[in-house]
């Protein structure tokens, strides 16, 4: 008896669920409201995940700050009155001198452009950060979904084990009633049945916990679905590691650090621009009440030795920029290691799953059938039958584990590369991520 599992290799943190929907008939998906597909889970998460919504407000705040950065120095209106309410000739306002003037600052060194570049770099970093966070969130969702499908497959296997235990118990009881089997074998078969029942109950509870974890991704505490829908063992094609690593070098995680480098560059420009002294100017009209005459006034102010006071800021900005370069190198090395581990593990798991499914399980199913027939005819012992059953169940469990590992590894690969392994069968990253930002 070949186990039928529901899981499919086309899962990815962002795109594989959409492939899942394209391979399943939409009519079935719409008619069964109690089931959850990965596509539906991803769409709900993109629409309602609280963590992803936070980035929208962050970007709104940065856009508002950019508007402030683009402003030129403000104009100030000054009114100054001198020589009034004094003594002697200056008593009252007869000898007062009133000045009405405008004043402002002339920024030198490209300070306004530096501020705008800094604001733009921060917005760019926030946008890439949103994409990286979206990939990370959907990657975690995909992993939980795959584990939930694996639990359903394990539950199905446990129910199969329970059915076998019930059948074996009935066979042992029949043989014991004929005096062909000792009472101890009946007791052992009953204990095996209890263990199978406990296993089923444990997996049912585990599946309920996983459904709650899934609902959390779109802000709900009570799942509105009863089961997960998917399929298994269509692993698809695989790219070479060099191709995958080339894709990973343009992923959002590295783009965040690239944006960080642009921010540091802008900080260096701002620090150097601050070393150029701004000119403060003032111009107005002065009226002399004593004579009734008026005159223009003008002034300019230049700070002295401001360049020397700014050297420390420039050195600090340069140091921060150099630190980003080393952080990028470290991230590339870590990315290479994680990607190779996932690529190698996926390849190994696919090979193990294929060999187990096509060779080991059919042989063990035949062995169990022959052992069962021999046990019923008295040619095999009870222990031989239990050993054959456990070996078959262990191989089916290994098959589930290998498939799960392959799918989770593939989801990690696609999260790190920000692209599906099969580009023709999935949506592009830009299309999907833009839907999360609207």
Automatic annotation (TrEMBL):
Family: Belongs to the outer membrane factor (OMF) (TC 1.B.17) family.
Keyword rRNA-binding set for record: no
Keyword list, A-Z: Coiled coil, Signal
Name listed for the protein in its UniProt record: TolC family protein
InterPro entries attached to this UniProt entry: MdtP/NodT-like, OMP_efflux
GO molecular function: efflux transmembrane transporter activity
Coiled coil: 186-213
Signal peptide stretch: 1-29
